[in-house]
């Protein structure tokens, strides 16, 4: 027997080998008594602050400003109006729409120009000057932000900008310089088998087994990372009578999904169903449920399916970032002999089964249903039908059965998919269109624009902090290069952060304290045995409660 493979997922214990020791990935320090909902509320509060600053520049340009004209100078009235205007919008969407506009306002003020009402000539000059310094997608993001202002905030003079041929053409020209899109590859058959065997192996570390099971849930439910984190009410559906050894399904209900773009879908749970047995015919899902129970992982509306670990142990009701989760997936697979896993991301899990279906030639309708999409002409069928996913699930089971028996080899070249059958053509590729209704938690690389947006927010948005900090001007602040989370140094050496992390090359030191302090990494202040956390008020204006530390 071979010795067990050391755990490659971060565990906060002093004796067990961890991913942090092997791949230099440190788990986030999180507040154990802070709910996932509270985390999202703070992000929403920070987004509202940005939009208040934009509206205050010229209230009469915005519908909410015109309706609050009687409350001139009362930012709280505007904040409340924006809170209701943005009802149903995700905090990530609000941040992404506000960012380009804040950069434009800061640019105009630096040149003693009046940014609002919006002027096509001024916006064109701004985009022309920014062309060489911003990301290629910035022009498209700016146009999306302006369209958001028109259709959501009732800004009347935006139509002239959006219809401008030169402005739109410049945005398109910039976008054409974007790096060619390379979709994340799916997991290979051998990778999926390795994850299934890992989950049921008691010789392996529990944290690795827990993470492997979560990634398998994403694979067989065809779920995004963000959607799977919101899964509730996990259950197993097995036939009462004998129907074969490898029959049955597991299912759950997703409370937060990226494709929930209508009010009806935002207020409904999305049922997700997958085959109970995978490629190795082992009971990985049942084992994983038992492992979760043994490890004491809580369940509930505000608890993610894969939680973070706390600094002192225990489970925190905040999910790891998609960047961290993708590193866990790669670390687990690379350590088990899959160097090609370096190209994987969290979205690789969702596309795995869908790519098998495409290569096998399964009907596009079934693939669309299994990807949780529907065509407009299928609306009636879904409204009046019940268990519409059953035919598509049987198609997926047939494909998995062919893979088990070696009749279908999805990881070889196109000519070798079906080694024992005459040449068959794979089905047309199903490309999943991105939805902007809910921001995905998948990994992104837009550090260049984020730096510029943070600098602009410091100039445009009034001073605001997510947490109250003692003597903030005496501290030295750093940001994580990728996540952009704000931290403070623990001492003059600059080698360690206040939260306990090492200050590595992944952090950049700030020359001065930011005025707009959102997305702050935090360390709980403990007093008299109690855990204190500062919370923003409902509108995100006042911070109350005991002081926290960044």
Automatic annotation (TrEMBL):
InterPro entries: DNA_brk_join_enz (IPR011010)
Protein origin, superkingdom: Eukaryota
Residue ranges, annotated region (Disordered): 415-437
A GO molecular function held by the record: DNA binding
Protein name, UniProt field: Uncharacterized protein
Organism for this UniProt entry: Symbiodinium natans
Lineage of the organism: Eukaryota, Sar, Alveolata, Dinophyceae, Suessiales
């Amino acid at each position: 027997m071979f010795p067990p493979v050391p755990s490659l997922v971060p565990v906060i214990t002093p004796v067990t080998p961890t991913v942090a020791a092997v791949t230099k990935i440190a788990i986030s320090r999180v507040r154990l008594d802070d709910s996932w909902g509270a985390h999202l509320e703070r992000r929403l509060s920070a987004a509202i602050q940005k939009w208040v600053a934009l509206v205050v520049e010229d209230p009469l340009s915005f519908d909410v400003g015109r309706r609050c004209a009687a409350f001139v100078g009362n930012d709280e009235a505007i904040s409340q109006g924006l809170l209701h205007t943005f009802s149903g919008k995700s905090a990530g969407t609000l941040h992404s729409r506000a960012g380009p506009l804040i950069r434009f306002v800061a640019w105009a003020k630096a040149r003693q120009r009046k940014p609002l009402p919006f002027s096509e000539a001024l916006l064109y000059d701004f985009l022309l000057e920014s062309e060489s310094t911003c990301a290629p997608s910035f022009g498209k993001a700016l146009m999306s932000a302006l369209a958001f202002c028109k259709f959501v905030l009732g800004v009347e003079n935006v139509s002239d900008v959006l219809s401008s041929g030169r402005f739109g053409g410049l945005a398109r020209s910039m976008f054409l310089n974007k790096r060619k899109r390379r979709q994340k590859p799916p997991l290979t058959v051998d990778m999926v088998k390795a994850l299934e065997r890992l989950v049921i192996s008691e010789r392996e570390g529990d944290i690795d087994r827990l993470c492997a099971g979560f990634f398998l849930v994403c694979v067989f439910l065809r779920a995004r990372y963000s959607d799977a984190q919101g899964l509730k009410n996990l259950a197993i559906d097995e036939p009462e009578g004998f129907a074969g050894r490898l029959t049955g399904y597991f299912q759950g209900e997703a409370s937060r999904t990226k494709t929930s773009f209508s009010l009806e879908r935002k207020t409904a749970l999305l049922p997700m169903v997958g085959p109970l047995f995978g490629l190795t015919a082992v009971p990985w899902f049942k084992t994983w449920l038992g492992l979760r129970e043994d490890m004491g992982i809580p369940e509930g509306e505000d608890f993610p399916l894969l939680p973070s670990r706390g600094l002192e142990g225990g489970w925190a009701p905040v999910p790891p970032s998609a960047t961290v989760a993708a590193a866990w997936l790669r670390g687990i697979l690379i350590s088990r002999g899959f160097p090609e896993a370096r190209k994987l991301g969290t979205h690789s899990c969702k596309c795995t089964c869908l790519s098998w279906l495409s290569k096998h030639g399964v009907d596009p309708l079934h693939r669309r249903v299994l990807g949780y999409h529907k065509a407009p002409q299928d609306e009636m069928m879904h409204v009046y039908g019940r268990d519409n996913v059953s035919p598509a699930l049987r198609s997926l089971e047939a494909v998995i059965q062919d893979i088990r028996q070696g009749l279908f080899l999805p990881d070889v070249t196109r000519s070798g998919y079906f080694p024992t059958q005459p040449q068959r053509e794979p089905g047309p590729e199903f490309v999943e269109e991105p939805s902007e209704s809910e921001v995905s938690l998948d990994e992104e690389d837009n550090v260049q624009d984020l730096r510029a947006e943070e600098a602009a927010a410091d100039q445009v948005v009034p001073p605001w902090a997510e947490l109250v900090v003692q003597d903030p001007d005496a501290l030295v602040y750093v940001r994580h290069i990728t996540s952009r989370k704000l931290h403070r140094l623990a001492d003059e050496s600059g080698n360690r952060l206040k939260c306990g992390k090492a200050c590595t090359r992944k952090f950049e030191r700030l020359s001065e304290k930011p005025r707009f302090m959102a997305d702050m990494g935090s360390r709980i202040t403990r007093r008299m045995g109690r855990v204190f956390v500062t919370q923003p008020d409902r509108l995100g204006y006042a911070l109350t409660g005991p002081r926290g530390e960044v």
